[in-house]
UniProtKB/TrEMBL annotation:
One Pfam family in the UniProt entry: DHDPS
A GO molecular-function annotation: 4-hydroxy-tetrahydrodipicolinate synthase activity
Native organism taxonomy: Bacteria, Pseudomonadati, Bacteroidota, Sphingobacteriia, Sphingobacteriales
Keywords (A to Z) from UniProt: Lyase
Catalytic residue positions: 140, 168
Superkingdom of origin organism: Bacteria
Family: Belongs to the DapA family.
InterPro entries tied to this protein: Aldolase_TIM (IPR013785), DapA-like (IPR002220)
SMART domains for the chain: DHDPS
Name of the molecule in the record: Dihydrodipicolinate synthase family protein
CDD domains (alphabetical): DHDPS-like
Length: 310
């Protein structure tokens, strides 16, 4: 997913009905909102999608639904590894690929246990790449079940195979990101940073874009940042957006994704706050936090003249 223009890849939510089933009409509306906001791609079936709480059948249904709604407007990537023997993981990678995604994403922490070495991990990655033929792949340093961050040279070796075109980085370390970008330069490959604490610096360092949970509150703001991060005439505004993201980091992560679904309700999306994942109680404190965030965002958005669709 290499692109000279910086892009935003939303980590998509899965809307649910009150009975716990996937709410496909809401998923349609949510997908359209991401697209209207200017997303350059979509990451379906990820942690924000509650992928570990979905069945294999539901994972494929949701991926196919997103691809149908996107209708070729942007590429879609989706997770395709959920543990077990490499042969089993490779089979599901093929199923996800057949759904029509641009690349299938492998979860780094599901290819080796936390106490297993990089050598074992590397061996399994190369085995997975071998067993999945010419299917384009990517990595996601998902924090569940634990976070396994790729070392720069590891990522470079995987990208050098020509099969790895995407990486969602969660290392939170700008120096590591710069080294990853240096070692993978010149390949048909994109690194998308999840950490908004250094979003502007990451984009300036050469990251292909951003892929963050903040996009499940205000996707158009993340798109605006990707479009204007290097515009000297808007330096004050860019810094204001960066500081806004830093200041609100904690409130957007607490009892997520319930809080983001509530925020989207306030924006006008017909989505319930139901989640299958146990993230803790959604209390009056979280409600107040979302009310303040909504007001602060509305003010910032108006100052930047950002158009919204809901």
């Amino acid at each position: 997913m290499e692109n000279s223009q910086k892009g935003f890849i939303p980590v998509m939510l899965t809307p649910f009905l009150s009975n716990g089933n996937i709410d496909f009409p809401a998923l349609t509306q949510l997908t359209e909102i991401y697209l209207q906001a200017g997303a350059s791609g979509l990451f379906a079936n990820c942690l924000s999608s509650e992928m570990f709480e979905l069945t294999d059948k539901e994972r494929i249904q949701a991926i196919k639904h997103v691809i149908k709604v996107a209708n070729g407007a942007v590429p879609v990537v989706a997770t395709g590894t959920f543990g077990g023997e490499i042969a089993k993981q490779a089979d599901f990678v093929k199923e996800v690929s057949d759904a029509g995604v641009e690349a299938v994403i492998a979860i780094t922490s599901l290819l080796a246990n936390e106490n297993e070495s990089d050598e074992i991990f590397n061996e399994r990655v190369f085995e997975l790449l071998s067993q999945t033929g010419d299917i384009p792949m990517g990595f996601y340093e998902c924090p569940v079940p634990y976070k396994r961050v790729l070392k720069p040279q590891q990522l470079a070796d995987f990208v050098a195979t020509g099969k790895v075109i995407y990486h969602k980085d969660t290392c939170l370390d700008l120096l590591q990101i710069k080294e990853k970008l240096k070692l993978t330069d010149g390949n048909a490959f994109g690194l998308y940073d999840a950490y908004m604490g250094h979003a502007v610096k990451s984009l300036k360092a050469g990251a292909s874009g951003l892929s963050c949970i903040q996009g499940n509150y205000f996707p158009e703001l993340i798109v605006w940042l990707c479009d204007h991060y290097s515009d000297e005439s808007l330096n004050d505004e860019v810094q204001a957006v960066q500081q806004f993201l830093i200041d609100n980091m904690e409130v957007m992560h607490h009892v997520y994704p319930v809080v983001s679904k509530y925020f989207l309700q306030k924006r006008g999306l017909n989505i319930s706050t139901f989640t299958r994942r146990n993230v803790g109680a959604f209390t009056t404190s979280e409600v107040k936090g979302m009310e303040t965030l909504f007001d602060d965002y509305t003010s910032l958005r108006n100052n930047l003249n950002i158009k919204v669709f809901i």
